[in-house]
Amino acid sequence: MTVKNRKIGFIGAGKMGSALMQGILKAGIVKPENLGASDVYEPFLNDLKAQLGINVSTDNAVIAQASDVLILAVKPQTLGSVLENLKPYITSDKLIISIAAGVPLATYESALPEGTRVVRVMPNIAATVSEAASGVSPGKNATSEDMKIALEIFSAVGTAVQEPESLMDAVTGLSGSGPAFIFPVIEAMADGAVLEGMDRKSALTLAAQTVLGAAKMMLETGLHPGELKDMVTSPAGTTIQGVHALEEAGIRAAFMNAVIRATERSKELGKK
């Protein structure tokens, strides 16, 4: 049975959950009638139903019972009560996928019925445009088929890679939080061009496309980013002057620290 033949349910329809739903439907791996979502905020659910044609309910149990694959997209702080509520409806034929930041697999495996198959995933908000970067880690009861399903779902909305759970906090700090580190870079680059006289719309468009193009170039050529940087920086040229300004500002340390701090926070959330 492929993912297309399975019913996927979301517990939580916030920003990340709704982004994943939109991405999954855009990729066409399931039909709207095979996708469901539950949330406490009924007006938002009704909007999702109208926009996407999916099944919705304010009762988690309704979605859980109707789903073959259940994706938990709730905040870590509310996860305990959600798992307690779901436990009576989790049967051996269901695959549980969690995208809650920082929460270890052991939390689910101890809170849900013995033998429950769980996969932990850390995607990012770019799932909305089918360009997510996701880390996927199997629980002790997850089968190879479960991993294929999880990787298929999250590969449909971007790139998904399997990682050991010991590295999932680092995945959270890097790709989970990463888009928020890049958006200010795009804005700041555009601000520089605006200062030099360019209109805001053109500056933002060129800045965003520059980031997109650079990333695509690295992924498609397989070259090290340092090597690609050297290809652009001619002696005494404009680019090396800009690179020097970035180094003076401590750009490498700033980005490294951003990932490290976000990773540390992910570890803290997992202990609560």
Write the SSE topology.
Elements (H helix, E strand, L loop, with lengths): L7 E4 L3 H13 L7 E4 L3 H11 L2 E3 L2 H7 L2 E4 L6 H8 L8 E4 L6 H7 L5 E6 L9 E7 L5 H12 L2 E5 L5 H9 L1 H18 L4 H22 L3 H8 L5 H11 L2 H21 L1
Parallel strand pairs: 1-2, 1-4, 2-3, 4-5, 5-6, 7-8
Antiparallel strand pairs: 6-7
Helix pairs in contact: 7-12, 8-9
Mean pLDDT: 94
| Span of the ends, CA to CA | 37 Å
N-to-C SSE string, H for helix and E for strand: EHEHEHEHEHEEHEHHHHHH
Number of helices: 12
Strand ordering within the main sheet: 3-2-1-4-5-6-7-8
Query: Into which percent range does the helicity of residues fall?
Result: 40-55%
Sheet of most strands? 8 strands, mixed
Strand content: 5-15%
How many strand elements?
8
- Uncertain ranges: none
Task: Determine Rg (CA atoms, Å).
Answer: 21 Å
Q: Could you say which structural class the secondary elements and strand pairing correspond to?
A: alpha/beta
The dominant shape is elongated
